[in-house]
Design a protein that fits this description.
Blueprint lengths: L24 E5 L3 E4 L2 E10 L4 E8 L6 E6 L22 H8 L4 E4 L11 H17 L4 E5 L14 H13 L1 H15 L4 E5 L3 E3 L7 E4 L7 E3 H10 L12 E4 L3
Parallel strand pairs: 6-7, 7-8, 9-11
Antiparallel strand pairs: 1-3, 2-3, 3-4, 4-5, 10-12
Helix pairs in contact: 1-2, 2-4, 3-4
């Protein structure tokens, strides 16, 4: 198979509304593709404005003109684990929702932060972080793993190479509130008694794990990290003590 010169061949405008679950699609992510019995098949991962993700089939005879299914793909086997997953609906700005979500946990993993489209007031995220710290202290939970960003500070004597300076400049232009919010979250964590790790990735790419990454408190190797490599590193921190009360920069490549 070869990449079409007409890219993108499928956009969010091509995705049909599938009530009551899927409407107002904002994103279509790069899918895997296979050729099966002279047909090209895709499983599209699409996201709605409410940030809910669904999978939809697409089919083509020539690999360019695709017919998008009007049914959501449902995977078998999920029902076997549904009783082991508890979904807490609420807002990170509501202390009662936060407490309900983390009560009884041994480790808290968090990716909260301003969305790119509507970052809002960065100080509300500082307040939310203070509430998380307070509730964790109240419930005797020590381990906290949080996602920041490579463009904000997180240590002493950091190296600001050209790539990292460019990333910071770009965020200052298009989303300064995000930068401020992430810095304020770090300040809250520094003053807490939690065993925290603030992981600072650059652009998160929808790519498979390569295992070729750099984790360093002062240096950023590149401007991207695959989502699978990042996920693996996050999960490793549940039991690792290497980056306690530190804010490592993580990116693809080796220094």
């Amino acid at each position: 198979m070869e990449r079409s010169l007409k890219n993108p061949i499928i956009t969010r405008k091509d995705i049909p509304h599938i009530p009551p679950l899927l409407f107002d699609v904002t994103s279509v992510f790069n899918p895997g593709a296979i050729k099966f019995e002279n047909r090209y098949l895709l499983i599209l991962r699409v996201q709605s404005r409410s940030r809910e993700t669904y999978f939809i089939m697409a089919e083509s005879l020539n690999g360019i003109d695709f017919k998008i299914s009007k049914e959501i793909v449902h995977f078998k086997g999920i029902e076997d684990v549904k009783d082991k997953i508890e979904i807490i609906k609420g807002s990170v700005f509501e202390p009662s929702s936060v407490e309900a979500a983390i009560k009884g946990a041994e480790v808290v993993l968090s990716t909260i932060g301003p969305p790119a489209g509507k970052p809002g007031d960065p100080y509300q995220y500082e307040k939310a972080m203070k509430e998380i710290v307070r509730i964790m202290d109240m419930n005797g939970i020590k381990r906290y793993i949080h996602i920041g960003g490579a463009a904000h500070q997180g240590g002493e004597n950091e190296t600001w190479n050209f790539s990292r300076k460019f990333l910071r400049l770009f965020l200052n232009i298009v989303g300064k509130q995000i930068l401020v919010a992430k810095h304020l979250e770090w300040e809250v964590l520094k003053s807490s008694d939690l065993d925290w790790t603030l992981i600072r990735p650059p652009r998160i790419a929808n790519e498979r794990a390569s295992g070729n990454i750099t984790v360093d408190e002062k240096n950023l190797k590149s401007l991207k990290i695959s989502v699978e490599d990042l996920t693996e590193f996050i999960l490793q921190q549940i039991s690792s003590k290497e980056w306690l009360r530190k804010a490592p920069l993580i990116s693809s490549g080796k220094i």
